[in-house]
UniProtKB/TrEMBL annotation:
Pfam families in the record: AsnC_trans_reg (PF01037), HTH_AsnC-type (PF13404)
Lineage: Bacteria, Pseudomonadati, Pseudomonadota, Alphaproteobacteria, Rhodobacterales
Domain of life: Bacteria
Full protein name: DNA-binding transcriptional regulator, Lrp family
UniProt GO cellular component terms: cytosol
GO MF annotation, one: sequence-specific DNA binding
GO term, biological process aspect, one: response to amino acid
Domain HTH asnC-type, first and last residues per copy: 1-67
Amino acid sequence: MDDLDGKLLSALHRDARASLSELAETLGVTRTTVRSRLQRLKQSGEIVGFTVLTRQDVAQSPVRGLMMLEIEGRGTERTMAQIAAMPQVRAVHSTNGGWDLIAEIGTETLAELDEILFRIRRIEGITRSETNLLLSTRKGRV
């Protein structure tokens, strides 16, 4: 991957629906160059797919946090499924280190966050948790 490939991927991250002509103009290259680069990036596995973001995907809950969880025994899969089924949970990650799972949570109010944290802590097998509120987010280039 060279600099042009990186710029092409950045342009696609901003707008995956951009036409070949738009991408060519943005990058200062021909449509043929964009087409061949896209084909090569797909064939090499660098681009594995395209997706759509909906309004719900980008709407941020005003109160967001990360909840780190320690799970007793071998119940991680079950616990992960229970947590992921809660509508306030945006994602659940398995991890290494001192914590077994990290849950991304988003709510409308602090009271709602407190309620979901309480519900998660009551799940059988959770032995310890720590929650950090997210105050601001800056997204880097993916």
